[in-house]
Specification:
Oligomer: single chain
Distance between the termini: 57 Å
Radius of gyration: 21 Å
Structural class: mainly alpha
Number of helices: 18
Largest sheet: none
Strand content: under 5%
Shape: globular
Helix content: over 70%
């Protein structure tokens, strides 16, 4: 287990080293008032403690992605560990930190508004459509996946339709009510259960001496599917995920001080990376090799792996608690996916959200569309989600790179992962059957050309924005703390 244990140690060290470097380079302003106070409305803008914000952020970003994604990515072998570790430290956590901190500096703005400000007005409209599409897919996937797990756990005792209805009712309440009424109150408890279940699986993997494979760059996939770009879209939430860019602004509106940013944004991405490592290791070691894993995935999907691994490692009672922990993950991301979609639409049309009716007319159509999407095959939804997710990550990283370029800071920390994931997502959509269906070689060439064009456009825009002295943050000089 040297690769597995070493990977987890590297993730933790990454928080204390590279995370500290990123924080210092960005430049925290401890005395600057955050949107939680400046824009306080007791609905979305509500000051909350660091511990509460961190646990909410972890549950927001850690849907089934850091579990289902690594389980499917485990088919590629230990190379999946490499992407999780280095992706989380140098791409995912940087992505989350920059998105959260830039949002704090700009009234808790969501990604479409930030893209419009830093990448051009056209991008605001493009990213707005893209973000809403992604959030609808996320919300729908995170209805289907926990419903399947609950159905299996209850052994068919409750009808699938009834389970879906209960989840939707909860989502509606969490989307409409003030953030501190449901999310702020119950998420810390859910977060503790999630951490306990993940740690339980980790301990049992070590104690039972599970045969976790060691480091190799060899492609172990039974179908020999290409590592690039597929691995980097299959494992997203555990390494780098654009969905996080839609979630961090929720917490940027409840953060009390910029100094808390590294713990909340960078730190929780590292925690998600650890969860992804645990489930990737379980998938690689418990099912008689990659062929056995492939067969089980084909017959029952990732949910079957979760159930089998939990019961196998922790027994009936412990395994059931672990499954409940996994069920909580998608539910606590699905609710904030719809909440985030409501907030993005409200910001786009400049609609105040103080009144319940204002929230209601935005939210209800979203749930109607999502319910219709639950009738579509989960596997197909996941493919579109993966591409939309990583494309959103690329946009968020380009926003971060632009901010740092204008600020005359080290923009390469965002630009290098932006280039990499732009190349991966473009290659995928050119090659994939759900995209243009061209050959892999044609996809590599096309993606390289498109990525180079984007780099050129970025530098042209960045130089103009720096010359124009584009304002990097909202002016709050006239704001004073109410007595």
């Amino acid at each position: 287990m040297y690769t597995f244990i070493g990977g987890i140690i590297l993730l933790i060290l990454g928080y204390f080293t590279y995370g500290k470097f990123v924080e210092k380079m960005f430049g925290v302003k401890e005395d600057r008032a955050t949107p939680a106070y400046v824009n306080k409305d007791d609905v979305d803008y509500v000051p909350m403690s660091t511990k509460k914000n961190a646990l909410i952020q972890l549950l927001n970003i850690a849907g089934v992605g850091p579990i289902f994604g690594p389980i499917m990515g485990a088919l590629y072998g230990p190379v999946a560990f490499i992407w999780i570790v280095f992706g989380a430290i140098f791409a995912g956590a940087v992505h989350d930190y920059l998105t959260g901190m830039i949002s704090i500096r700009n009234r808790g703005a969501h990604l479409p508004e930030l893209a419009g400000k830093f990448l051009g007005k056209i991008m605001k409209h493009v990213v707005n459509v893209f973000a809403i599409l992604l959030l609808l897919l996320v919300g729908t996937v995170f209805v289907s996946s926990p419903a399947t797990l609950i159905y299996n756990l209850m052994d068919g005792w409750m009808a699938m339709g009834a389970i879906v209805a209960v989840i939707f009712i909860y989502y509606i309440m969490a989307t409409l009510l003030p953030i501190d009424k449901i999310i702020g109150r119950f998420y810390p408890i859910f977060g503790a259960l999630l951490i306990i279940s993940a740690v339980g699986v980790l301990i049992q993997l070590v104690l039972t001496g599970a045969p976790i494979p060691e480091l190799t760059f060899e492609n172990m996939h039974p179908d020999n599917l290409p590592i690039f770009p597929l691995l980097f879209l299959t494992i997203s939430c555990g390494a780098l995920s654009g969905f996080h860019a839609t979630q961090t602004p929720i917490i940027s509106r409840t953060t009390q001080s910029e100094k808390q940013g590294r713990k909340i944004f960078y730190g929780m991405m590292i925690a998600e990376g650890v969860i992804a490592m645990i489930w990737a290791a379980a998938a690689m070691s418990l099912f008689n090799g990659y062929d056995g894993l492939s067969d089980l995935l084909a017959n029952g999907g990732p949910a079957a792996i979760v159930s089998e691994a939990s019961i196998l490692l922790l027994g009936s009672i412990g395994g059931t608690l672990a499954i409940i922990g996994v069920i909580i993950l998608p539910i606590t991301s699905g609710d904030t996916a719809f909440r985030s979609a409501r907030m993005i639409i409200a910001d786009y049309f400049n609609l105040a959200q103080k009144k319940m009716t204002s929230r209601l007319w935005i939210a209800l159509p979203l749930f109607v569309i999502s319910f219709a999407l639950t009738k579509i095959d989960f596997t197909l939804l996941w493919r579109y989600f993966s591409w939309a997710n990583q494309s959103t990550a690329a946009i968020a990283l380009w926003v971060g790179a632009m901010y740092l370029f204008i600020a005359k800071k080290n923009y390469w920390i965002a630009m290098i992962p932006a280039i990499f994931i732009t190349m991966a997502t473009t290659t995928y959509i050119i090659n994939a059957p759900i995209g243009f269906g061209l050959s892999l070689n044609a996809a590599y060439i096309g993606a390289t050309i498109i990525t180079i064009i984007i780099i050129v456009l970025f530098f042209n825009a960045a130089k103009k924005n720096r010359a124009a002295n584009l304002n990097l943050e909202e002016d709050i000089s006239n704001w004073s703390h109410p007595k």
